[in-house]
Automatic annotation (TrEMBL):
Keywords: DNA-binding. This is DNA-binding protein. It holds the Pfam family ThiN. PANTHER family: HTH CRO_C1-TYPE DOMAIN-CONTAINING PROTEIN, TRANSCRIPTIONAL REGULATOR PROTEIN-LIKE PROTEIN. It comes from Natronococcus pandeyae. Residues 26-48 form the HTH cro/C1-type domain. The keyword Nucleus does not apply. GO terms for molecular function: DNA binding. InterPro entries: Aldolase_II/adducin_N_sf, Cro/C1-type_HTH, Lambda_DNA-bd_dom_sf, ThiN.
Length: 299
């Protein structure tokens, strides 16, 4: 297993530093001055100068790398650019070269040929690839779950049926595009218990509420259900949330849609229960972390 970041650290940075050290020396800077500018030791500069550091020829011959090194060399040597500004410029180029099909992406795929097993349409370095999109959703969800797990008192907000924090992909069409906690989040003797890591397609109920709200225009990509309490509704309203009631004894998707139609700005949906139905509050938000922060503010 090799990450693209390892390509950056092991091959890109030594190559760029070597080229940049040479540019600065050509412009009259001493080894000590080059070391200060690049934030490395004089012995490292000496190694670069004597060719004792292995560089990647493909990176060194890349036109954008050559152009940037020359630009940074001029700027750093004459004082028009600070080391921080140079760092930012290098970071920008790294991100550009990591995108699908570009140089660092190619080097990574050559180093890990197994990536091809994901199919011809798979591009791990494409920021819009399905895998990266899904991983961003799961990553946000994991951070949101950690916030809840570490929030003192969150267990008191978990209803008898359990809570679930869910998040969906940007073009979510059904529950398979919504990630949540398998088995839901439960209160076990006053402790928030998350039984397993989040997965896609494991939450039907909260996912249905989120998807229905989105289909009717709600600007939300995540949601959570907590126990119903009028005081909690009041606190959410004080936070600036618009609340809307729906009837869960009816078809949930239709009822949620009707509630959003009546209150397009609603970010909190609730139902007061019925025969065999526990009253619940649903908090919507742009991502899992935001939803978790909203709920944590209730404690």
């Amino acid at each position: 297993m090799k990450f693209v970041e390892e390509i950056v650290v092991d091959e890109f940075l030594p190559t760029v530093r070597s080229l940049l050290a040479g540019e600065l020396r050509e412009r009259g800077l001493t080894q000590s001055e080059v070391a200060t500018v690049l934030g490395i030791s004089q012995s490292a500069v000496s190694k670069y100068a004597h060719g004792d550091v292995t560089i990647n020829d493909r990176i060194a011959e890349e036109e954008r790398v050559i152009a940037l090194v020359e630009e940074l060399g001029d700027g750093l040597a004459n004082g028009d650019m600070t080391p921080v500004q140079a760092l930012i410029e290098i970071e920008v180029l790294i991100r550009e070269l990591e995108t699908g099909g570009d140089l660092l992406a190619q080097l990574h795929e050559e180093a890990v040929p197994e990536l091809a097993d994901h199919g011809s349409s798979f591009r791990i370095h494409d920021p819009e690839s399905e895998l990266r999109t899904s991983e961003r959703v799961l990553s946000s969800l994991r951070r949101g779950l950690r916030l809840l797990e570490n929030a003192s008192g969150f267990a008191t907000l978990i209803p008898a049926v359990g809570s679930n924090l869910v998040a969906c992909t940007p073009d979510a069409a059904d529950v398979d595009d919504v990630a949540g906690v398998p088995g839901r989040i439960f209160d076990v003797k006053g402790k928030t218990t998350i039984p397993s890591s989040p997965e896609f397609g494991v939450s039907e109920h909260v996912a249905t509420v989120l998807l229905s709200a989105r289909r009717h225009g709600a600007n939300a990509s995540a949601a959570i259900n907590i126990r119903y309490d009028r005081e909690l509704l009041g606190k959410l309203a004080e936070q600036g949330h618009v609340t809307a009631e729906f009837d869960e004894s009816d078809d949930v998707a239709s009822s949620v849609g009707a509630a959003i139609d009546d209150q397009p700005e609603a970010t909190v949906l609730y139902q007061t229960g019925g025969m065999g139905i526990e009253p619940l509050i649903y908090v919507l938000g742009p991502d899992a972390e935001s939803v978790a922060e909203t709920v944590r503010a209730l404690l």
